[in-house]
């Protein structure tokens, strides 16, 4: 039983994370050098920052990577902390693009995409090789999803596991903490969401528990940014904690209304995976758009919460 669960989980997660890395590397090589220039030049207003955050998160396939990049730019003095609030709001929405694509269930294209990607990567031209990495990365992601699905069947048949999740379904807080801890450990909110989709499809977890795990995953992605901010200046620490506190606040607001969120997503689609993807999109869209007009106020609040003592002492 343990082998039938751990083997597909380990291989599937490895394929998925390696695919994310390959796709991110391909995109970075295609547009990575321009990314920093865009982020430093086109973040004059919260709205511009929001779109830059959304675009760069889609390109880098990781809100954590964009937040870490933002911390680096802030630490170097290329952008001010007040310019980063819009970026943070954009990154949260940008992550939903990946989730929506994953929920389309394109696993049947995994091997063809992987083969096409490898063939392109063997070409002499650099740009074509980078495109090959992106295509192969997508193939590995879908292959990882297909592999991780294998573990859902023995989990569904395991009385111990089912009783554990049945117990946790009575407390969405358990789901939230599970999402936070697991995402912090594997450094990928998308992977946590994919695993949750598989468990929900096989009815191992309830929709409310699954959504609580996804909300927890949003918080867990902030762990990388907090670690990256250690040893940096105050502005960089403000970026990391602004991202963290925003995601915590959003989760706490939505946690009591998860049944209503589940009803809305069920109205949009019958597919359990798409329901999770749509719920995450609704959550991040509402939180980001609600906070965007107050970006300057949020920045001032974070600066008050985490003050620059050097400025105060002057």
Write the layout of secondary structure elements.
Blueprint: H1 2-41, H2 46-60, H3 63-75, H4 81-102, H5 110-121, H6 126-149, H7 152-157, H8 159-168, H9 172-186, H10 189-201, H11 207-220, H12 222-228, H13 234-254, H14 258-268, H15 272-291, H16 295-305, H17 309-313
Helix pairs in contact: 1-2, 1-6, 2-4, 3-4, 3-12, 3-13, 4-13, 4-15, 4-16, 5-6, 9-11, 10-11, 10-15, 11-13, 11-15, 12-13, 13-16, 14-15
Index terms:
mainly alpha, 314 residues
SSE-based structural type: mainly alpha
Average pLDDT level:
79
Q: Please, how many helices?
A: 17
Question: What percentage of amino acids are in beta strands?
Answer: under 5%
Number of strands: 0
Query: How far is it from the N-terminal to the C-terminal residue, by CA?
Result: 64 Å
What's the gyration radius in Å? Answer: 20 Å
Q: Major β-sheet, in short?
A: none
Q: What number of structural domains do the residues give? A: 1
H/E series? HHHHHHHHHHHHHHHHH
How would the global form be characterised? Answer: globular
> Percent range for helical residues?
over 70%
């Amino acid at each position: 039983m343990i082998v039938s669960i751990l083997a597909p989980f380990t291989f599937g997660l490895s394929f998925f994370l390696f695919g994310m890395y390959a796709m991110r590397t391909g995109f970075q090589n295609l547009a990575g050098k321009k990314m920093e220039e865009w982020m430093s030049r086109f973040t004059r207003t919260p709205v511009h920052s929001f779109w830059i955050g959304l675009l760069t998160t889609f390109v880098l396939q990781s809100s954590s990577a964009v937040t870490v990049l933002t911390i680096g730019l802030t630490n170097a003095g290329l952008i001010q902390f007040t310019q980063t609030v819009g970026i943070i709001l954009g990154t949260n929405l940008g992550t939903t693009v990946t989730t929506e694509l994953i929920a389309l269930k394109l696993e049947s294209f995994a091997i063809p995409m992987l083969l096409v990607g490898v063939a392109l990567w063997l070409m002499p031209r650099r740009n074509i090789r980078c495109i090959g990495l992106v295509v192969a990365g997508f193939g590995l992601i879908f292959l990882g999803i297909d592999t991780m699905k294998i573990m859902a069947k023995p989990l569904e048949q395991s009385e111990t596991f089912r009783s554990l999740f049945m117990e946790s379904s009575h407390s969405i807080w358990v789901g939230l903490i599970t999402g936070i801890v697991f995402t912090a450990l594997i450094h990928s909110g998308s992977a946590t969401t994919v695993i949750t989709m598989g468990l929900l499809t096989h009815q191992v977890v309830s929709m409310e528990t699954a959504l609580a795990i996804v909300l927890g995953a949003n918080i867990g992605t902030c762990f990388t940014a907090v670690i990256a901010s250690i040893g940096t200046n105050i502005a960089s620490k403000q970026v990391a904690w602004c991202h963290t506190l925003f995601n915590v606040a959003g989760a706490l607001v939505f946690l009591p209304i998860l049944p209503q969120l589940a009803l809305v997503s069920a109205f949009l689609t019958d597919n359990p995976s798409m329901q999770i993807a749509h719920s995450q999109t609704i959550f991040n869209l509402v939180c980001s758009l609600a906070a965007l007009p107050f970006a300057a106020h949020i920045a001032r609040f974070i600066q008050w919460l985490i003050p620059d003592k050097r400025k105060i002492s002057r």
